[in-house]
# Entry
Amino acid sequence: MSALAEGTYLPKGLTQPAPMRDGLDLPYWEGTREHQLRVQRCADCGTHQWGPDWMCHACQSFEVEWVAVEPSARIYSWQRVHHPVHPVLADHGPYIVVLVELPHADNLRMLGNLLGDPMQDIVIGSDVEAVFEDHDDGSPPFTLVQWQVPSS
Amino acid sequence: MGGAWLRFAAVSESGRGLRGRTAIAGVGETTYFKRGQSPDPEFVLVLKAILAACEDAGINPREIDGFCSYSNDRNTPARLANALGLSELRYSNMQWGGGGGGAAGVVQNAAGAVLAGSADVVVAYRGLAQGQYGRFGQGGRRPAISGEYAYTIPYGVMSPAQVYAMRTTRLMHEHDIDRSTMRAVALAAYHHAQNNPRAVMHGRPLDAATYDSARWITEPFRLYDCCLENDGAAAMIVTSAERAADLSDTPVLVLAAQQSGGHRSGAWVHNPTDYATSSFKLAAQHLYEQAGVTPDDVDVVQSYENFTGAVVMSLIEHGLCTYENANEVLTFENLRADGGSLPLNTSGGNLAECYMHGLGMQIEAVRQVRGDSTNQVRNVKVSLSNAGPMVEIASTAIYGTAEVLG
# Structure
């Protein structure tokens, strides 16, 4: 786990995330500000759950808690985006999106960018670690969870 | 192969089920335009498509007493009924979800209404003028977003291509599916569009070299792997089989129509239990059981291309090829209406006729049964058309002749 040394992977000006008005996913977003990766886990049956919901899909319990999980994952799928669909990205060039699975949390999947060379080779199954990308100038401030292949 | 498709409870034997009890009495569409080029407002396009379908059916538009649409269509049944001067509106229905997931589900809903006696003449319709409203292929512009999109848009995942690319990558990874399958789907669509004067890409053929050298949209999709963006409208008239038989000597029966979602298929942030899927694995079994046919009986297929990779998934999950033989079966030669063993997307589909959120592909499936397609396959009795693969709720339908009922 580390914080992004400088700058952000994608340029500023994209739509920023905000917690849901009903409070469902506030613990996730608060966790990212503390550089902690949180997901849901059922207090009754122990099943991890993502995306967030009010009910455990495995046992229909409403007792769904938030737990911090180890911020490491495996690449499950990926794409390299070439055609920008937002003006902020118009002159940016290709960028990589990865779908990762969390082996420490029932292989839940999360989505983020893969840091580093946008033209790097991407291997499904590779281990990656979370990088917390702070946007302190957001309104309100927010933190994105990015991924990178650990330096050997 | 037939046994595997018949393991679900015998719905038709219980006296329930659509099989052959409703029909598509008429179909119609407006001129299909490139995005932004319609001279008519979207609402006018829908009215024109409905009138065209009624004329095709030989039904007075004032007989319409129900409407079904999908994808949160802006042109509401109440407004349509007002404009058409209908004396009674007995049924209105919306299938939720974006994109074209409901293009066959809308037939399921309309047929169900007719079968239940809720209405007698139900229009299934879709109008879309992306030039007058938002484009599906453009990202959001608002300053902040909450909910599922908060986990995707800030990472640059905004357009449908960006949302669905990773499913295709995973399909190719898990099953060694070759890119050549996706190219074959694109080439077949463009090939068929050259015989279809309605097609936006009529007169604009595509060859393999052009496909291969086209720019990336997002890997693994190049330009010609992605559907078009268009303006237009389309409509189908659903009635009882008896009424359709009064109107035509060769009515097109709805043999089956089914909405389609698997375990947690709508789970946020790419968390469906089964990921590399078109979401048709379960629905296809219900579909064939309801229709009383097997994949071997299917004469021609319209398989919705939001993206070519989804077509590969859909064909496999409908039992029309397998994970193991997809690379051999899905070739341009096999997918051609003129002599192919698995004629596919014979109007040009969403890639080359028009992206009317798939309703045009339902219409083409009907035309194949009637025998008046611009790329007519010989002696069609069973015609399959699916819709919206990979989206939260997809759908799929089979049309056929009375002969199939035996």
User: Anything to note?
Assistant: Residues 18-148 of chain A form one domain. Chain A has a mean pLDDT of 95. The longest helix of chain A spans residues 26-33. Strands of chain A lie at 2-3, 16-17, 38-42, 48-49, 64-68, 72-81, 95-102, 108-113, 127-135, 142-148.
